[in-house]
Structures are given as C-alpha cells and as structure tokens.
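Internal QA ticket QA-208
Title: Verify multi-chain structure generation after dependency bump
Assignee: T.L.

Test input:
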Amino acid sequence: GAVVSQHPSRVICKSGTSVKIECRSLDFQATTMFWYRQFPKQSLMLMATSNEGSKATYEQGVEKDKFLINHASLTLSTLTVTSAHPEDSSFYICSARDPTQGNTEAFFGQGTRLTVV
Amino acid sequence: AQRVTQPEKLLSVFKGAPVELKCNYSYSGSPELFWYVQYSRQRLQLLLRHISRESIKGFTADLNKGETSFHLKKPFAQEEDSAMYYCALSGRGNTGKLIFGQGTTLQVKP
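Actual output:
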C-alpha cells in the first residue's frame, strides 16, 4: 500500500514556541491530506483538510491561526502549532489517499507526539 | 449529526472465542463505513470497508442500515488480533474525511 510519513515522530518544545510537523506521501501524489488529533485514550478527531495549492478547511472549533496548515506540493503538507501551550500536547496524525488506488483507503502517518513544557 | 459510537472501550476474550466489536453510526445519507486497526507501536491501517464485503484476517463486518450498525466479527479470536480497533465513517462523496468512533481495545488472552 501507499506510504505516508510524518516527521518528527516526537517533539518536545517550550511553551510559547512554534512547532512544525511534516506529512509526506512517499510514493504517490495527494491533492488532499487530513490532520487529526488524538488525546490519550481517546479517538482521532479531524482538525482540518489540507488542500494542495489552496487554503485548508478547518473543522468547527479548530483555531486556524493556532494550527497553520500549508500544502505547498502534492507530496507535502505541514502543520505548524503556533505559540504552543501545554494543552496543545497531543498526538497528531495525518492521512492521505492515493488517487491511483481508487481513492477509497486512507493511509496514515505514524503520528507525531507533541509535548509542550 | 454525524457520529460513530463504539460502546466498549475494552473487550477481553480468550483465544478461540468469538469476537464482536460493536459500532453504531448516525448519518443522514449513505455513508461508507470502515474498520481501522492499530497494532501495538504501529500506525493505523485499514482492516475492512463495507463496500468490499470481504473477510480480512478472518474478520467480517456487515452494514445494517436498519440498525445503523457495522459490527466487526470474528468466529475464533487469535492472540495476534489484540489491538485497538476503530470504526470510521466517510460521508457522501467519500472525500477521505473520516469520523472515528472512540475505539475498542481487543485483548485476546492465551
């Protein structure tokens, strides 16, 4: 199957700083990628849809100025957590679909564990 | 409102026992339903999708529109089935955007 890779897999940052997380589709092009957030022992919650070449679409309740998404190429989307605070500590996961494989299966990255201290 | 409910956080069975992980959904329209699995220290991966009507690793799931359910079943659980299972829904047009249930941890004891 297609491969989606996230970097870094873990990051610790100080409160008030910004952190960038990358999501890459390694062997396919993705016009759309998705960013999810997962709190401990809870489900994945969709944060936003990242659209190549245009603005991201954010889910209700997600602050777009806080979670900046850039999808500058067909293989890379980035999520920047700006002015991070301890409550932003979470597991962030991206996904993408390979349009050449019928566009039905979402492939997930391995996730990024963000800890804000 | 679109919602996926998995009522059980943890399901613990003995090896060889039947397994049923429950999933109910709420969606006004014709959704596409999926089961995703996450084994220990691995990423989330697709297990089943309702449109395929296939059996993967002995698991099956039937979409029951009347009961708005998509329960995951396996007649004889194996230890390697121990994992976190998520039921997910994709709405009209299957944009790739998924709504996940809370997840059920399946623990298969020897």
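Spot checks passed. Residues 37 and 43 of chain B are 8 Å apart (CA to CA).
Status: verified.
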